[in-house]
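User: I'm curious whether this sequence folds into something compact or stays loose and floppy. Could you predict its structure so I can see for myself?
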Amino acid sequence: VQLVESGGGLVQPGGSLRLSCAASGFTFSSYLMRWYRQAPGKERELVAAITEIYGTTTYADSVKGRFTISRDNAQNTLYLQMNGLELEDTAVYYCNARRLPYVYWGQGTQVTVSS
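Assistant: Here's the prediction. I'll summarize afterward.
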């Protein structure tokens, strides 16, 4: 099983980034997919989630209206489009796959918002 995030980097406030998470080794379309993030000195927090079949999405209040989660079940890939980035969005972003009892994590990708 592998979850490989990419797309992180350094961006100025107000900028945009698109994160990707390439999945392999499991039936991607059968898993709830989520993005988490962890800022220095803080606990890991849920950013966004998307369900398996209907693609219903949920977001943390702090990112609503700025971030969009999506998935391509044919390509086994999860995305997070991040617009209007703020300094507080600086964190390591992790991809998560869940179909209990199985839960998988990626290694994370760093997003730094700085002027």
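Summary: The CA atoms of residues 15 and 71 lie 22 Å apart. The chain has a mean pLDDT of 97.
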